[in-house]
Amino acid sequence: MSGGRRVIVIGGGLAGIAAALDCAAGRANVTLLEVRPRLGGAAYSFEREGMQVDNGQHVFMRCCVAYRRLLARLGSERSVFLQPRLRVPVLSPGSAPSALARGALPAPLHMAGSFLRYRHLTAAQRLRAARAALALARLDPDDAALDEVSFGQWLERHGQDRDAVEAFWDVIVRPTLNAQASEASLALGVFVFHTALLANADAGDIGFHAAPLSDTIGEPARRALSDAGVDVLLGWRAEGLEREAGGYLVRGGGEELGAQAVIVAVPHARAAALLGGPAPELARRVGALGSSPIVNLHVVYDRRVCEEPFAAGVRTPVQYIVDRTAAGGVPAGHQYLAISLSGAAREMQMSVPALREAFLPALRALLPRAREARVERFFVTREHAATFLAAPGTAALRPGARTPLPGLLLAGAWTRTGWPATLEGAVLSGHAAAAAALEQLQLTPAGARAAEPALSGAPPPGAGA
Fold this sequence. Notes:
By secondary structure, the chain is of the alpha/beta class. Helix content is 32%, strand content 24%. The protein folds into three domains: 2-44 and 212-290 and 390-440, FAD/NAD(P)-binding domain; 100-201, Guanine Nucleotide Dissociation Inhibitor, domain 1 (Orthogonal Bundle), CATH 1.10.405; 291-388, Alpha-Beta Complex (Polyamine Oxidase, Chain A, domain 2). Helix 1 runs parallel beside helix 14 and helix 2 (65-74) packs across helix 14. It is globular.
C-alpha cells in the first residue's frame, strides 16, 4: 500500500465495507471507523434467550448484483438462498391463500398467469390493475417530474381504489420502499416495478439470509477487511470532521486521525452532523431527508404453524411473515416467525403488550394452525430511522458520492444511487465513493470485482415448502 495516500471510511455498514475493500484493492492505506463493537451496520444479529435474532428481515432480489457480488467477496454466498423462481404467497383473513409468481413467459408477461388467478382482487380490480401496470411500463424512470407526485396519487388517477392498492400494489411497494404507495415517490415506485418485475423475468426472484446476519455479513467482513490490510477500529465514534492542509482530520474520543480522503458512510442524520463543519450547505440538504421506521415482531410457537418460508398479508395488520426457525436456533419442534412491518410509524408508538394484543389474533386469522398453538416467546425490535423516507421530493435531496470538497465523499443507501434504501443501494454507494476517492488520490482501481455468484435455488433447511 501507499503510506502517503490514506483513506478514512467512517461507518462499518455495507456501504463502508464495500468502500473500504475497494480502496484497499486500489492500494490506498485504509482505516475504517465504526462506533459499534461489530460490523454490518443495520444488518446485524444478536443473541436473546439462546436464540439468534436478526434486527430486521433484510431480503434481496436476483437483480441485486452488487450485493450478491459482495457476499461472494466475503465468502458468504452459501449463507443465502435465492428463489429459483419468484413466488410470493399472499394470505388474507377468511380467504384461501393466493400467490404472485412468475411463469415461463418473457417479461413483462411472466406474471400474467398468477395475476389472473390472484384471489385477493376481484375480476374488475385485476383488469384495472393490468391497465395501470401497462401505463406504468410506459413511464420513463429517468423523468425527474415523477418525483414530484406520490405513487398513490398516480395509482388513483389510473383507477386503483384503496382496497386494490392494499391487496396488490402495497405488497410490492411497502417492503421495497419502506412506505405505503400513498406516501412514496412515484419515481421510486416506477424504479421498483421496472427493475424487479417489468424489465427481466427473473429479476424479482427473492433472496433470503439462511444464516444469522452477523454470520453472513459482520464476521466475514471483519476477516475480509483484515486480509485486505484495512485497519478496523471498532467502538470508535467520529465526533467531528474538519479540513486541514492536504486532507481532513477526524476527531473522536480525544483522538485525531488524518487522511487525504474521507468517506462518510453513516446514516444520513449522523452524516449531516459530521458534514456541518466542512460543508454546512450539504449538511442542511442531507439533514432534510426524512426517515421511516421498521418494527419486527418475533414470535415462537410450540409447533409448526406456517408451511411457507415467507408470506405477505393483505387486509390484515400483518405485512410479511418470515420463517426464521433454522437460523434462530429454537428448540426442535418449535417455529420462530418474524413479522416485518415497514413504514411502521403507528406500530413504533405501540407498547409490547399492545402489539401482542393486536398481532397474535391477526396471526391466528391468517394461520389456522396458530389457533391451537401456544406462544412460547413474543418480543419486539424497532429501528426508529431504518431508512430515509421515500417521499416525493426526495430525489433532489439525495447527494451523489462526490461533494464540492475534494477528498470528501459520501456513501450510504440514502445517497443518489438510483435505488431505494436497500442492501443493493448501500453496496453500490460504497463502490461509487471508493471509485471517486481513488480517482482523486490518483490511484488505479483494482480489476473487475468478483464475478456474479451462482447461488443455490434450494430452500434452506427448515424453511418449509
